[in-house]
Specification:
Layout lengths: L9 H9 L3 H7 L3 H9 L10 H6 L12 H16 L2 H16 L2 H16 L2 H16 L2 H13 L2 H19 L1
Helix pairs in contact: 2-3
């Protein structure tokens, strides 16, 4: 059974906005669970953000109160991280974001799925993978190019054989 909702009175909307109660206004348009979440989140109003955070998150100003609480929290954490970065780090992030946006949507989806699988691995396995990645990064650029080229030339069955051999070697070193 659904309950018909009437839109909030325009005067009430202005009053709540003037009082800085945007989460309450947001709550009036949502389900009881969403409403409780919206009102209970500390610092959920745009006005609660520090001026430096507002400057970084400016593009969200018009609809900040309508964003899900988890997204607002992630955006705040990202803004804080951005503020701690050096100019060189910010430049690198901007360049990487530019490359990410240039990827086709299907490729981005594959990368996201791969990352989610990685995050679900046991911590020891994630650490092992990160150490291997770091060893690879320390190789001379020519050697990395050569290895990538050889990997791309392998068909899927050959890749699986290589992976199997590497796993066997790792197991032998453990024993």
């Amino acid at each position: 059974m659904s309950v018909a909702r009437r839109p909030p009175h325009p005067g009430r909307r202005k009053l709540l906005a003037a009082l800085g109660l945007a989460p309450l206004l947001f709550a009036l348009r949502r389900s009881p669970v969403q409403a409780a979440e919206a009102v209970s989140i500390a610092g959920s109003a745009w006005s609660d953000l520090a001026p430096s955070e507002q400057r970084i998150l400016q593009r969200f100003a018009g609809h900040w109160g309508e964003l899900p609480a988890q997204r607002r929290e992630r955006l705040r954490k990202g803004a804080a991280r951005w503020l701690r970065m050096t100019p060189a780090q910010r430049s690198r992030v901007k360049e990487r974001l530019k490359k990410w946006r240039a990827l086709p949507p299907a490729r981005r989806a594959r990368i996201r799925a791969r990352f989610q699988r990685f995050r679900k691995l046991p911590k020891s396995e994630r650490q092992r993978i990160l150490r291997a990645r770091e060893r690879f990064r320390k190789l001379p650029p020519e050697r990395r190019r050569e290895l990538r080229k050889r990997w791309r030339k392998l068909d899927p069955a050959a890749r699986r054989r290589v992976i199997r051999k590497l796993r066997q070697r790792r197991q032998q070193r453990r024993d």
